[in-house]
# Entry
Amino acid sequence: MSTIQVQDEQGVRIITINRPEKRNALSLEMYTSLTEYLIQGESDNAIHAFLIKGQAECFTSGNDVADFLTNSNLDAEHPAFRFLFTLLDLTKPIVAAVTGAAVGIGTTLLLHCDLVYAAPSAKFQLPFINLALVPEAGASLLLPQLVGLQKASELLLLGESFGPETAKSLNIINELVPGDKVFEHSLSKAKKLASQPPQALQATRALLRLNKEQIRDQMKMELKEFETRLKSDEAKMRFQAFLKK
# Structure
């Protein structure tokens, strides 16, 4: 079975992260597939919206750390960061359905989504500091804009997990949905988006995101600092301890 599955339904490209035995940890190969499916959907006139989801037990636990460390020379073409810049450049709306763990990039990618729905089982975390790293995906800019500086500092400097009720109160998710309904509900919203006049939909989305170039510049700064931190002694110690677990 493919670790990234894709299905097109009524104008919606449904992308499913499918690696439950590894808690949907994202490998470099998976990042490449995600990017390809997004780019294909962006250029397909029959696709008008995206839905990203995981398994009922887990959205994604973040990077496959061992795999990520095999390619620590980071630039905009690194599979993980190419995926993030692709997210930034999409013109079509993105819906996310979150169940279980949404760790690291599992939370930061939500900041690029238009609509996010979560089940009571959802658990979010931005644990970059715990690995002696810095945020990515423009989170150091987007999160303070969304939740305020003090709360963003709490989430990013302490690196603690938080539940869907907190995520809802911070506007990281739109709505908390019963676990057995979250995929169905998210898909119905994605189909509603896909049924809207596409040019007006994309134009409205673009107007809502006039700071795209500012986000891009922030992502580039994050990428540079992320690479520096990744090669630091303190990060190497934290990763060794993490892998031993």
